[in-house]
Amino acid sequence: MAMFNKVGFGGGCHWCTEAVFQVIQGINTVEQGWIASEGVHSELSEGVIVHFDPSIISLRTLVDIHLATHSCTVDHSMRKKYRSAIYTFSDQQTIEAEETLTVLQPQYAAPLITKVLPFLSFKLNKETYQEYYLKNPEKPFCQRYIEPKLSLLKKEFKTVYKKK
């Protein structure tokens, strides 16, 4: 039986983030809703909790996917609602996530704004909005915002993209 770890991600719309991680090998569950950390990051922000099998996919690969599929270098006016973050559940995970950001930074022309934050709380979205893309792939929102992310995954992360 697989041992699953979990990590939280926030960056853009949680429908988009959910759809991205649902097509990755080694992911057991993606919970979609709002995540909070502590201090100035204690307000809930859109995000997901990803339950993954580290024997199939590494935290580093998950972080790489996360950075590639949202505006991780842009500090726009909606960052309170769409915080660019990796929410960790252990000190070891925090260290690994921070090291991964340092290793991946040279791939980006601008500084990464993604923060590594301790997980504090989570509020699950309504059932109506769970698995939004899987239930509504033809909707204009999904076509405009999610499909390009999935196309990028198929091209850039083909070794971990689930074959349908």
How would you portray this structure in words?
It is a single chain. The protein has one domain: Peptide methionine sulphoxide reductase MsrA (Peptide Methionine Sulfoxide Reductase, Chain A, 2-Layer Sandwich), CATH 3.30.1060.10. β2 and β3 form a beta hairpin. Helices cover 33% and strands 22% of the residues. α1 packs across α5 and α2 packs across α3. It has a six-stranded mixed beta sheet, covered by helices on one side. The chain has 164 residues and is of the alpha+beta class.
Give the amount of beta strand, in percent: 15-25%
- Strand segment count: 6
CA-atom Rg in angstroms:
15 Å
Low-pLDDT residue spans:
none
What's the N-to-C terminus distance?
A: 23 Å
CATH topology: Peptide Methionine Sulfoxide Reductase, Chain A
CATH class, named Alpha Beta
Largest sheet: 6 strands, mixed
Mean pLDDT: 95
- Name the CATH superfamily classification: Peptide methionine sulphoxide reductase MsrA
